[in-house]
Amino acid sequence: MAVRAADEKGAVAPVALEVTEHFGLADAFLIVTGSVERNVQAISDAIEDELNDAGVRTIRREGRESGRWVLLDFGDILVHVFHQEERDFYQLERLWQDCPVIDISAMIETPAVATAPVSINE
């Protein structure tokens, strides 16, 4: 649901990581990118609305006001909605490169293309 909601709002370069073995507080990270601050906010709002409507409660939300990096905590899944500059700077995929990638390609209509290449194996 989170992947589809993000995709519908124009999120790019979605990556899902299985973090269970390395991070005891969640099972997965979903990382997506928005083009501008308002897009980051719209993506995070859509994800939160979709999951809340399905009965998945938001435990914590941070960063929505700035629209640069929004963190949504739903318990089993943490969603990171980045502005491209923040995603390039923090490189979460590189930081968590030991975690298996979850194939979400069948869940999106928009090809995974970022302004700058994102690699988790660097």
Automatic annotation (TrEMBL):
Q: Which GO terms describe its biological process?
A: cytosolic ribosome assembly; negative regulation of ribosome biogenesis; negative regulation of translation
Query: What does the record give under GO molecular function?
Result: ribosomal large subunit binding
- TM region positions: none
* GO annotations of cellular component type: cytoplasm
Q: Which Gene3D superfamilies match?
A: Beta Polymerase, domain 2 (3.30.460.10)
What superkingdom heads the lineage?
A: Bacteria
Where's it found, cell-wise?
Cytoplasm
One matching Pfam family:
RsfS
**Where's it mainly located?**
cytoplasm
What keyword terms does UniProt attach to this protein?
Answer: Cytoplasm, Repressor, Translation regulation
Carries keyword Cytoplasm? yes
Oligomeric and partner information: Interacts with ribosomal protein uL14 (rplN).
Q: Which NCBIfam families match?
A: rsfS_iojap_ybeB
Reported function:
Functions as a ribosomal silencing factor. Interacts with ribosomal protein uL14 (rplN), blocking formation of intersubunit bridge B8. Prevents association of the 30S and 50S ribosomal subunits and the formation of functional ribosomes, thus repressing translation.
| Name this polypeptide is given | Ribosomal silencing factor RsfS
